[in-house]
Amino acid sequence: QVQLVESGGGLVQPGGSLRLSCVASGIIFSFYTMGWYRQAPGKQRELVATITTGYSSNYTDSVKARFTISRDNVKNTVYLQMNSLEPEDTAVYYCNARAPLAWSRPDSWGQGTQVTVSS
Fold this sequence. Notes:
Layout: E1 3-7, E2 10-12, E3 18-25, E4 33-39, E5 46-51, E6 57-59, E7 67-72, E8 77-82, E9 91-98, E10 108-109, E11 113-117
Parallel strand pairs: 2-11
Antiparallel strand pairs: 1-3, 3-8, 4-5, 4-9, 5-6, 7-8, 9-10, 9-11
C-alpha cells in the first residue's frame, strides 16, 4: 500500500521560508518521479515542481528561483524548499509519486499540507 505523508506546512509572513517534506512508503522510491502540486481555493490543482529518478528538476514559472525540490533516496523523502514566499503561494500542497510509464500504475497522492502566506 502506497503512502505519502507530507509535513512542514504552516503560516508564514510574506518573504518568509518553509520546507515541506514528504515521506513515501510502499514504493521503490528511487524508481519514482516525485513532485509537488498545489491547489488554492477555487482553483485547479497545478504542478509546482518535479524531480526525476536522475535528479532532473522542473518548476512552474511562478516559483522558479524561489523554490527548490530535492530528494533523498535513502530516507524515501522528497523536499520542497520555499523561499521568498508570496501571498499567491497560499494553497494546499500535495506530494505526488509517479511510477515508470512501463509499470502502468496510477499516480499516488498525499493528503496535503496547508501553506498560508499572510501578514
